[in-house]
Amino acid sequence: MTGVTPRRVLVTGGCGFIGSELVQQLLDAGARVTVVDICTYAVSERTVAQIESHPSARVERVDLREIDALRDVLEEVRPERVFHLAAESHVDQSITRPAAFVETNLLGTANLLIVLSELWRGGRLAADFRMVHVSTDEVFGSLALESTDRFTETTPYDPRSPYSASKAGSDHLVRAWYHTWGFPAIVTHSSNNYGPRQYPEKLIPVIVRALAAGDPLPIYGDGRNVRDWIHVSDHARALRLVAEGGEAGGRWCVGAGHELSNLDLVTAICRIFDQREGVAPGTHEARITFVPDRPGHDRRYGIDARALRSLGWRPEVRFEEGLARTVEWYLDHPDYWSVTAAGAREGGSDADDRADDDAGGNDDA
């Protein structure tokens, strides 16, 4: 990692899946970290406790939709870096309750920009202040399965779900603040994340738990939908890098270049279980069950991360190794999600593990 980790960092959604990994990396690098997170159902109290136990970290349970409470925290902290991961991000839930996504992802981001820009224009933030707005590749729409194209920083926006539309809107707000006032913000677009401590409604933990329980393995549609998978630790390293080495107003696509269909991903997890249990290859695959597809389900996402690589970033976790370690983590921590901050609520499997964590709304990625 190049650059110097700043002393004061604020992370919205820092108790979620991706956010908590980023917070841990920042703390390991010597930063003082304030987490702003409303801590809804998609946040484990165990994650919150782990963060709060660190002498250089604190958690402020603030809703980004409440601008006065947000202003109080930001005026006190006056961060040198802000990583904005707080968002509603579960695609299925955006279809059933879109208003929550509009409120959190648009209003929450607008409030953060309003308060930070007030402090910045008033000379109350560091001269080299940066905000990193963590978005998703889903704002670019869907690629054809037979295509070799990948999303880049210049790909036109074409969101297809209430979730991705709300994220696209928040991206536009961030870029408008840069172009109107020169506010020093950076936007990143990540592919699907995987790793430990992910909320159990997401595809990989859903499949692992189903395999462990002997249940059917649900896959949307024909299972051919393709996603580009990156380990959460590699994503967090990329965010830290662009915060120090990226220019204000820039955009960065973050992906490991490992595209895999949902069916192939589930099959890979089945093979891990076959080997663990010493059974014949294909034994667990027989439990795969195809369920009705999600409305408007995008067929393929793929990331061209050459711009990010030009800064010196490379993914460090090989997918096969990372997936095996992730499966082991879930099997070793079967009760990790038995206690949540706002009560357990588990939905169906969602293959789209986006680049967002929960603070101003409900779901994390």
Task: Give an overview in words.
With 365 residues, the chain is α/β, with parallel strands linked by helices. The chain is built from eleven helices and twelve strands. Helix 1 crosses helix 8 (232-245) and helix 7 packs parallel to helix 9 (262-277). It is 38% helix and 15% strand.
Task: Draw up the topology in text.
Elements: E1 8-12, H1 17-28, E2 32-36, H2 45-52, E3 57-60, H3 67-77, E4 81-84, H4 91-96, H5 98-121, E5 130-136, H6 162-181, E6 185-190, E7 192-194, H7 203-213, E8 217-220, E9 226-231, H8 232-245, E10 251-254, E11 259-261, H9 262-277, E12 288-291, H10 306-309, H11 319-332
Parallel strand pairs: 1-2, 1-4, 2-3, 4-5, 5-6, 6-10, 7-9, 8-12
Antiparallel strand pairs: 9-11
Helix pairs in contact: 1-8, 3-5, 5-6, 7-9
Termini, distance in Å?
24 Å
Q: Beta-strand level of the residues, as a percent range?
A: 15-25%
Report the biggest beta sheet as strand number plus sense, adding barrel if it closes. 7 strands, parallel
Using the alpha-carbon principal axes, give the shape.
globular
Report the order of strands and helices. EHEHEHEHHEHEEHEEHEEHEHH
* Sequence of strands across the biggest β-sheet: 3-2-1-4-5-6-10
Key features of this structure:
single chain; 365 residues; alpha/beta; 7-stranded parallel beta sheet; 3-stranded mixed beta sheet; 11 helices; 12 strands
